[in-house]
Design goal:
The termini are far apart. Helices cover 58% and strands 17% of the residues. Helix 7 crosses helix 11 (234-261). The strands form three sheets. It has a three-stranded antiparallel beta sheet. Strands 1-2 form a two-stranded antiparallel sheet. The protein is α+β, with helices and mostly antiparallel strands. A hairpin with a 6-residue loop joins strand 6 and strand 7. The chain has helices spanning 2-23, 41-55, 78-81, 95-102, 110-119, 136-139, 156-176, 199-211, 215-224, 226-230, 234-261, 265-274, 276-281, 284-304; strands spanning 30-33, 36-39, 58-70, 83-93, 121-130, 140-143, 150-154. The protein has two domains: 55-176, no CATH class; 197-302, no CATH class. The radius of gyration is 22 Å and the shape is globular.
Length: 306
């Protein structure tokens, strides 16, 4: 049984390399879920830098702005159904083109400067929406002992963060023309319930995954349920793995969001100590995403010191 598994892993590694080469992505920029490739945050950022370097541009803006809220009809409470919308904005600035055009004016007015800036600024936009029901892994606060946690309220800021992340990544995909769907767009498939003796086990495992409230808890759960998962048919194993990876991905987004809100070196050091266990529990690719965000925050905080 081990040989086929190794062959499968080797084939997957080769496939990732081929996809990465075709899309112009680093290997770490691709995440495989359910046998399908998706671009992650690292991949999109790499494509952004590549575009800027190739075309002689500067990444001048990456931002989001709120565009409203909606409460569609359907299951769940009003708080759970409430959808938050954001517009993601990505801008590239052609400094070389701007300066060349500017050199043709002896004493340019403010109006001319603004017109030239607009002419040489390339803007990409897209929207992202999320509700507690579309990002359950990070949308709820849980209470109770391990293995028997219950939802105890909606974490509105986390839902807004997911909507903003969707908007930003969609704008990035639009800017770089990436052919792969980004990871945060993927939901655990709501397919017809599987039949057979394993259906109940699968449902229990997927329900337990939705109740996990941290990366360290998810890692421990995976270790404790390893044999039970391996006893399932291969297709069901993949469903559990995909659900677990998506959960970990949302915990990763939550950690990134926390880092982005930090405003001082002291606060960052405290965060790193408090989140050490969570960081170590993340899959290696997800951990690299958070580590990259921490390094960016360290650099930006150093820049604010006198």
């Amino acid at each position: 049984m081990k040989v086929p598994a190794r062959r499968e892993e080797k084939a997957l590694a080769v496939s990732i390399k081929e996809i990465a080469k075709a899309e112009g992505l680093p290997i770490t920029g691709i995440t495989i879920l359910g046998g399908r490739p998706y671009v992650n945050v690292s991949g999109l950022d790499a494509k952004m830098k590549e575009k800027a370097q190739k075309e002689g541009l500067i990444i001048s803006k990456i931002a989001v702005e709120s565009i409203g809220e909606e409460v569609p009809e359907g299951p769940g409470t009003e708080v759970e159904r409430r959808m938050f919308g954001y517009r993601g904005i990505v801008e590239f600035f052609d400094k070389g083109g701007f300066l060349e055009a500017l050199s043709k004016f002896e004493n340019p007015s403010e109006e001319i400067l603004k017109t030239l800036r607009d002419m040489f600024t390339y803007r990409f936009e897209d929207e992202g929406w999320a509700s507690a029901l579309t990002c359950e892994a990070i949308a709820y606060r849980y209470e109770g002992p391990p293995g028997n946690k219950r939802k105890a309220g909606v974490l509105i800021e986390n839902v807004k963060m997911m909507a903003a992340r969707k908007a930003t990544n969609r704008a990035k995909r639009s800017a770089v023309g990436c052919g792969l769907t980004s990871v945060e767009e993927v939901g655990v498939p709501s397919e017809e319930a599987p039949t057979g003796d394993f259906a109940e086990d699968l449902e229990d495992l997927l329900t337990e995954i939705q109740k996990l409230s941290s990366a360290s808890e998810a890692k421990k759960w995976g270790e404790e349920n390893k044999e039970k998962i391996q006893s399932l048919p291969k297709e069901m194993q993949n469903k559990v793995k995909d659900a677990w990876l998506l959960r970990m991905g949302e915990f990763t987004d939550g950690l990134v969001f926390e880092v982005q809100k930090i405003s001082s070196p002291e606060e960052l050091e405290t965060w790193k100590k408090e989140k050490k266990e969570e960081m170590e529990a993340l899959p290696s690719e997800d951990r690299k995403v958070v580590e990259t965000e921490v390094k960016k925050k360290e650099a930006s905080l150093k820049g604010t010191l006198v």
